[in-house]
Specification:
Length: 570
C-alpha cells in the first residue's frame, strides 16, 4: 500500500507520517518511509531539493522550479518508493506529485491542466492508494514553524525561495490541496491538526489506515476531533483577555511549548502568572517570552533564569536599554557572548561600546556587526570596515539597518553583488534610491522582504506596492504596523477577512480609540475561535493598557497595579 502525506509547511505532516510508520511497524507491518526522520532517502533527491530552496536563485521561474520538483519526486519514486512497493512493504511518503500541483498551480498560478501531463510522466502511472491531507490554519502553522526554529536554534536561518514569496503562498497552496481532496474523496482523508493533542490525532490516523490495510469499509471522512469550546458569548475587546487565557490554558495541556511562546512580549499579571508556572519546564521559552518587557516581575524572572538559559535571557531583552539591562548583559556575556552582542542594536552608550570592544578582542566580529544596526558613529564604521576586509558581507549589510546617510547608501551599493537580500533588509523604513531599486527588482521573487522593508514608509510608491501585495500575502499588512493614517486604516479594513491575524497585529501600539475598537471587535466576532487572532488582539489591548497607564498620575498607576501588575515602565 502506498500512503502519501500532504499539507502546507508547518502542518505536522512530517511528524504524523513518522509516527504512523512507527506504529505500523509495531503492529507487524513492513514499512518503508521515503522521508524517514524528515530526510529524503534518495541522495540525488536531497541535492535537487537544496537547489529549489536556495534563496540566492530568485530568478528561477515557476516552470523551472516545477520541473526540478518533479525530478526530485521521480528520483524518490525510482530509488525508494517503487522498490519498497515491489517488496510488498507499506510505503509512506511525505509529499508526492500532489505537492507540485498545489505549489505550482495553486501557489504560483500556473494552470493545473498544463501541469498534469508532466506529473503523469513523472509518476509512471504510480499514484498513492491513500492520501492524508494534514490540514491546519496557516497562521497557526506559521507559529509552530517559528517555535520549531527557536527550539532548534535555527531562528536566524535564511528563508527558502518559497518562504521569500510571503505567507500568502501557504494560504493558496492549502486551498489547492483542499480542492484536490474534493475532486477525489475516495482517495483522500483530511486530518485537521488545529486544536487536539498529537496522541489523539495519531490514534485516529492509525485507526483509519489500519482499516484500509485490512480491507474494512470505512466512510470517507474528515478526521476532526471536537475542539475545546470557547467561553460563551460574542468575542469583543471587552472579553478578549478572558478568551485568550482560556485558549492558552487549553493549549498548555496539549502543546505547552506553543502556549509559552504565545506569551512573547505580552505584559500583565495574567501573562506573568503563567510564565512562572512554565518556568521550570520551559525556561528557554519563558526567558524569550519576556521580549521587551521592563517591569519588576520580568526582571525577577530573568535573574532566576540567567544561570540556566543565558542565551535565551539575552535574546529576551529585546530593545530594553535601561541600566538594569546593561548590568544584565555584562553578567551574561561570559556564557552567551554572541546573543549579548547581537542584542545591542540602536545602542550607542559607553556600556554598549565596552561590550563591543570586548567582543572584538574575543573574536566575535560577526555578532558585533549584527548588533550595530541603527548605530552611525565613527567607531561603528571602523568595525564595518573590518567586516568588509573579512568578507562578512551579510553581517555588514545587516549592520546598516535603519541608517539613512550617503555613507550607508554607498556601502549598500557595494554590497548588492554579495548579498542583495541582506541589503534589502537594511532598508526597512527607508525610501532611498537603493531601497527603491531593490524593491522594484525583487518584488516578484522576494515579496515578503520587499513588503516588510516598507514598514513605516508613507509615500505614494509604498502605498501602491502595499495595495498590490495585499491581494497576495499578509506581509503587506505587516508593513503598516503602528501606522495611524487614512490609507493604513483603509488597507486594514479591506484585508481584514483575508489576513485577520496580521491586520490585528498591525494595530499594536495604537490607542484603543473608537476606530481601533471597532475593527478589533469586527475581526474578533468573525474569527472568535482562532488562536492567532486572539493572541494578537490581546497583545494590542495589553499594550494599549500599558500606554494608558504610563500617561496616568502615579497614584492611579498604583491603584490599577492589581489589574496590570506586569506593565512596562514608561
Amino acid at each position: 500500500m502506498f500512503i502519501d502525506f500532504e499539507g502546507i509547511d508547518g502542518s505536522g505532516k512530517t511528524t504524523l507520517s513518522n509516527l504512523l510508520a512507527s506504529r505500523l511497524k509495531r503492529l507487524g507491518y513492513k514499512v518503508a518511509h521515503a522521508r524517514e526522520g524528515g530526510e529524503l532517502q534518495s541522495p540525488t533527491a536531497r541535492r535537487i531539493r537544496d537547489l529549489t530552496r536556495d534563496a540566492r536563485l530568485l530568478e528561477m521561474g515557476s516552470r523551472a522550479e516545477f520541473f526540478l520538483n518533479l525530478a526530485r519526486d521521480a528520483q524518490q519514486l525510482e530509488e525508494v518508493i517503487a522498490p519498497a512497493l515491489k517488496r510488498g512493504d507499506v510505503c509512506i511518503t511525505d509529499r508526492y506529485l500532489y505537492s507540485q500541483l498545489a505549489l505550482t498551480g495553486g501557489g504560483r498560478g500556473l494552470k493545473e491542466e498544463q501541469l498534469l501531463p508532466s506529473c503523469e510522466l513523472a509518476s509512471q502511472g504510480l499514484w498513492p492508494d491513500l492520501v492524508i491531507l494534514v490540514d491546519v490554519d496557516p497562521d497557526l502553522a506559521r507559529l509552530r514553524k517559528r517555535l520549531g526554529k527557536v527550539q532548534s536554534g535555527k531562528v536566524n536561518d535564511a528563508d527558502s525561495r518559497k518562504g521569500l514569496v510571503g505567507a500568502g503562498l501557504a494560504v493558496r497552496v492549502r486551498e489547492a490541496f483542499l480542492a484536490q481532496a474534493r475532486k477525489d474523496p475516495s482517495r483522500w482523508i483530511i486530518l485537521e491538526n488545529n486544536d487536539q493533542p498529537l496522541r489523539v490525532l495519531e490514534q485516529r490516523l492509525v485507526d483509519a489506515v489500519v482499516a484500509r490495510l485490512e480491507g474494512r469499509e470505512q466512510p470517507v471522512q474528515r478526521l476532526v476531533p471536537a475542539p475545546t469550546p470557547p467561553p460563551p458569548g460574542v468575542a469583543s475587546v471587552d472579553d478578549v483577555e478572558e478568551r485568550f487565557f482560556h485558549a492558552v490554558d487549553a493549549l498548555e495541556a496539549r502543546e505547552p511549548q506553543l502556549a509559552a511562546w504565545l506569551l512573547n512580549g505580552i505584559p500583565g499579571l495574567a501573562s506573568h502568572q503563567r510564565r512562572l508556572a512554565y518556568a521550570e519546564r520551559l525556561p528557554g521559552l519563558v526567558a524569550r517570552s519576556l521580549n521587551g518587557l521592563d517591569d519588576d516581575t520580568a526582571w525577577t524572572l530573568r535573574d532566576v533564569l540567567s544561570a540556566s538559559v543565558p542565551a535565551d535571557v539575552a535574546e529576551g531583552l529585546g530593545f530594553v536599554t535601561s541600566p538594569r539591562s546593561h548590568a544584565l548583559r555584562q553578567r551574561l556575556y561570559a556564557q552567551a557572548p554572541e546573543a549579548v552582542l547581537e542584542g545591542l542594536k540602536r545602542q550607542d552608550s559607553p556600556e554598549a561600546w565596552a561590550l563591543r570592544e570586548r567582543g572584538m578582542k574575543d573574536g566575535h566580529l560577526s555578532a558585533v556587526l549584527l548588533g550595530l544596526a541603527g548605530v552611525d558613529t565613527e567607531e561603528s564604521w571602523v568595525v564595518r570596515e573590518a567586516g568588509m576586509q573579512r568578507k562578512l558581507y551579510s553581517e555588514v549589510a545587516r549592520s546598516l539597518g535603519g541608517l539613512d546617510s550617503e555613507r550607508a547608501e554607498a556601502l549598500r551599493e557595494a554590497l548588492i553583488p554579495h548579498d542583495r537580500l541582506a541589503v534589502l533588509k537594511s532598508t526597512t523604513g527607508l525610501e532611498t534610491p537603493v531601497a527603491v531599486g531593490l524593491r522594484e527588482q525583487l518584488e516578484k521573487g522576494a515579496l515578503k522582504l520587499v513588503l516588510r522593508s516598507l514598514t513605516g514608509v508613507d509615500t505614494p510608491r509604498a502605498w501602491e506596492m502595499r495595495e498590490r501585495g495585499a491581494a497576495l500575502t499578509k506581509e503587506a499588512l505587516d508593513s503598516v504596523d503602528g501606522m495611524d493614517c487614512p490609507r493604513a486604516w483603509k488597507l486594514r479594513a479591506s484585508a481584514a477577512r483575508r489576513w485577520p491575524a496580521t491586520v490585528v497585529s498591525s494595530m499594536k501600539g495604537l490607542p484603543l480609540v473608537a476606530e481601533t475598537r471597532a475593527l478589533l471587535d469586527r475581526i474578533l466576532e468573525e474569527q472568535a475561535g482562532k488562536m492567532p487572532v486572539l493572541r494578537n488582539a490581546y497583545a494590542v489591548v495589553a499594550q494599549a493598557r500599558v500606554m494608558e497607564g504610563a500617561q496616568r498620575p502615579a497614584r492611579s498607576v498604583v491603584e490599577t497595579a492589581g489589574v496590570d501588575a506586569g506593565r512596562q515602565e514608561a
